[in-house]
Amino acid sequence: MKHYAIIVAGGSGKRMQSNVCKQFLILNHLPILMHTINAFYHTIYKPEIILVLGVDSQGYWADLCKEYNFEVPHQIISGGEQRFHSVRNGLLAIKDEGIVAIHDAVRPLVSKQLIERMYEQAAENGNAVPYVKTSDSLRQIYNNTSKIVNREQYVMIQTPQTFITDQLRKAYQQNYKQMFTDDASVVENAGFRINLVEGERNNLKITYPEDLRIASFLLEN
Ligand SMILES: Nc1ccn([C@@H]2O[C@H](COP(=O)(O)OP(=O)(O)OP(=O)(O)O)[C@@H](O)[C@H]2O)c(=O)n1
Ligand SMILES: C[C@](O)(CO)[C@H](O)COP(=O)(O)O
């Protein structure tokens, strides 16, 4: 069975408010995206890596690879308007059957153990989607007010979300919907049951400036 990793790095990082797209920012001496690709490359599965990049970023990435002597083999595919379109473009580059992990470029702290667990669980169950419980209380907002909800009924979803190619290909034939904020939502809407697997608290998504400082601390400790 072949193993693939689609790393989506086609976003512009508006919430980070930096001049350089956040996936290229330096985290403890290495661009975030290189940490992320290395994490997959160093697993026992050594997946074929498909890197989805915005057309405007591809030259910059080539320069970074030279500057950092980055030699992990990867195929570059152009991104799309939304994350959904970027994933779909990456998926079109996969011709064989296998297991595909889809991962946000901006989750560089993902562990080797979590990636391997996701591939194993997807092989057994068709898909695997990592989650963590919330330690905060949750409220639902409506009509200018809010109401407490039962937090035991909610979990927070991470990546790598991992699927057998058959499920992903069927799911990504659908047209884009606003509710498709991740791959599990696309696959579920195509009629497949989602298999939740425990994720990792450290597997944070670098979204806001303070996340970069937290990630830097976690990497060093
Ligand atoms: N059209 C898009 C949009 C997002 N992504 C990727 O999807 C991941 C998760 O998205 P997010 O954290 O929202 O990144 P951005 O869209 O870049 O950030 P923002 O929403 O703040 O602009 C990121 O690795 C991002 O590069 C992508 O490949 N293609
Ligand atoms: C895919 C994801 O990281 C799962 O938590 C999340 O849905 C991405 O959301 P974003 O708003 O595109 O960052």
UniProtKB/TrEMBL annotation:
CDD domains: CDP-ME_synthetase. It comes from the Bacteria. Its EC number is 2.7.7.60. Pathway: Isoprenoid biosynthesis; isopentenyl diphosphate biosynthesis via DXP pathway; isopentenyl diphosphate from 1-deoxy-D-xylulose 5-phosphate: step 2/6. It catalyses: 2-C-methyl-D-erythritol 4-phosphate + CTP + H(+) = 4-CDP-2-C-methyl-D-erythritol + diphosphate. InterPro entries: IspD (IPR001228), IspD/TarI (IPR034683), IspD/TarI_cytidylyltransf_bact (IPR050088), Nucleotide-diphossugar_trans (IPR029044). The record marks R15, K22 as: Transition state stabilizer. The keyword Nucleotidyltransferase applies. This is 2-C-methyl-D-erythritol 4-phosphate cytidylyltransferase. It comes from Pedobacter montanisoli. The gene is ispD.
